[in-house]
Amino acid sequence: MAFNHLPAAMHDALGPLSVTPVTHSVPMAKNLRPRRPPESGESRPSPGTVLDRLAAGAGRAARITHTEHLPPRPGRHAVWPDRIRPEVINAIQRAGVEHPWAHQAAAAEHALDGESVVIATGTASGKSLAYLAPVLTTLLDGSEAPNGRGATALYLAPTKALAADQCRAVKELAAPLGNRIRPAVYDGDTPVEEREWVRQYASYVLTNPDMLHRGILPSHPRWSSFLRALRYVVIDECHTYRGVFGSHVAQVLRRLRRICARYGTHPVFLLASATAAQPALAAGRLTGLPTVEVSDDASPRGELVFALWEPPLTELHGEKGAPVRRTATAETADLLTDLTVQGVRTVAFVRSRRGAELVSVIAKERLAEVDRSLPRRVAAYRGGYLPEERRALERALHSGELLGLAATTALELGLDVSGLDAVVIAGYPGTRASLWQQAGRAGRAGQGALAVLVARDDPLDTYLVHHPDAIFRQPVESTVLDPDNPYVLAPHLCAAAAELPLTETDLELFGPATAELMPQLESAGLLRRRATGWHWTRRERAADLTDIRGGGGRPVQIVEAGTGRLLGTVDESAAHTAVHDGAVHLHQGRTYLVRRLDLEDSVALVEEAAPPYSTTARDTTSVSVLETDIEVPWGDGRLCYGSVEVTNQVVSFLRRKLITGEVLGETRLDLPPRTLRTRAVWWTVTEGQLDAARVNPEQLGGALHAAEHASIGMLPLFATCDRWDIGGVSVPLHPDTMLPTVFVYDGHPGGAGFAERAFHTAREWLTATREAIAVCECEAGCPSCIQSPKCGNGNEPLHKRGAVRLLTELLKGAPEEAPGPPPAD
């Protein structure tokens, strides 16, 4: 029997709803009275004082496992390069910046020299100004050209909110320069009547990689005047382009460079990130160009107090009687309530859209008990809102009308929200890079700030709040991406051929795997070779072959059966677990039951209902080894990396009570199996190692299964992935290895680089896994160590002590040095 742990590509990431009711068993700080929010210029309470107030409630102080104090830092000024236009310097000074920081001047110098540069300095360090100074200078120079359109620049952001925010900032900065600078947003929210104006007249176009992929590049003849004048491409928050998404964006940028060369331009790339490891290497891999690194942060920084917070145990019990901690969602709602009552401007980051809505609802209800005027000062912010709703919330947060916001990561990426006092992070966001991005949203005006990480009942969160050095003494993760993944590369070659026929000279641009793929695309009838090169042969749009966000496949539409109203969509890869017959589906606070999933027409018909339960899909998974690329001995066992095929089938679903998670029943499903060819790391143990670890045959399945769960939970500490990006299988006797084996695989076709990173950091990764299980206070296993929220086998069987002994024995044979260098970034 195989015990499996599935990635988001095959599993509904929501899982059962488990939120403590509004009548909480653990009260918030007593005797809280509303404090008038500080006026502009008025002194604010120190972050230490704010934290002391939060800890004043009953049992609150014991939840703080660690407090880190980051001292303030003075800044270092420089002068702008003499090639920056005086009008631009005057505009910057009018905005309140008398002199640049040293890193801003250095980055501008490189950009003016025609060198691609990545600015890798902290949050609120003025990265935008570092690239805007040379960009605005070049646009002004171009506006004076006697003929033609003049110079243009393109700005890419990972989210619409960030592009809109940056457009506002550029308009304000460039206002003294008149209409010689014409910024405009071009994305899915841009009205059709405005799009032609943007194409013909905008000099600084702000968009996202999705629109570049689907809209601009396929229609490049309509953008010809813009592309002929393109001098700079700005890539903001470049650390977000990782994994499959980053690999897609890397190929989109290569397509952009190819089209630009067709129009006679070779733009300079300016990249920015507050959290990037080896930034020059990562930027070079993303753009395909040599890139200069500017990482010596010369900006001042206010004091930051960073608290690690572990919710208390409750009286509830989960699977197999395991103790259950209070949810991070409920705890975050209480903290947001208390901070709002104190008049502390706060953003609470929540991982899911549903979680953000719940935190907002709970906080509003608690605030109404304190002061009826306070609930309107709190709101939720997430993807899926209408454009006008997002813009209204952003304005309210900028103005201070809102005191508290429960947000998804849509607000993480650089949205300039000056004046925030505190950030509450509901659960480790998956990487140190994201953690510091979110913490950096507070204190952006230079004042002191408070950040609180609230741990979820999860192996990684529990490990981190008790091992603060893993957060505060380690650099951010290296960016993992693989542009040569054939599942990523192939559709972009088709898209490129549809834009302009591919020639032999183009192949090197797209990477070494291109030459091998071209014959396959020809034999599949997608490309046809002629004298002028390879041509796209189909009538449909080649850009529609792939979703660069990694969803893949035709989205399944969720339709209300009685009205025919479209509620939304779900990725095809998640449909079997998210919208199977009988599934509970949440949409904008309303609950629906799926009456029928039509796989042929990609439609799920739902009806509004109020069931007292949630649903969780159950499935079976098997892994077969296709090819072993690398194999190294670990004592008598082996650590391997290579290609595998994963076969998964959803076979049933459980109905669980909303609060307790108690199983009410199981219903069989008849859904077809699906296969995934991907990359994996796996390890084997021998009978001698099992004897040494005192793991008998009755314990073996549970020990392997527990080690698999915990290792998946810990991998995000070593690779830039989320646990939903990866899957796993453990088998007491695998037919390909003929030994007890644990697999951890990338949950994306062709792989995403995560399993490869796991292979090269296996000693550190599995050591942390063993420790996370060993130090957990539970008796037989719980969500904080070996139980998984997405286990296809209902967390059966698990053997906590056997897993610790097994990993201890395995690690005795681990080589001192990593097996070869980690993958290049």
What does this structure look like?
It is a single chain. The protein has 825 residues and is an alpha/beta fold. The strands form six sheets. Strands 1, 25, 26, 27, 28, 29 and 30 form a seven-stranded antiparallel sheet that branches. It has a seven-stranded mixed sheet with strand order 2-10-17-16-13-15-14, sandwiched between helices. The protein has a seven-stranded parallel sheet with strand order 5-6-4-7-8-3-9, with helices on both faces. Helix 9 links the parallel strand 7 and strand 8 (268-272). Helix 2 packs across helix 4, helix 9 (243-262) packs parallel to helix 17 and helix 15 (459-466) crosses helix 24 (762-775). The protein is globular and about 85 Å long. It starts with a strand and ends in a 13-residue tail after the last helix. Residues 5-38 have low confidence and may be disordered.
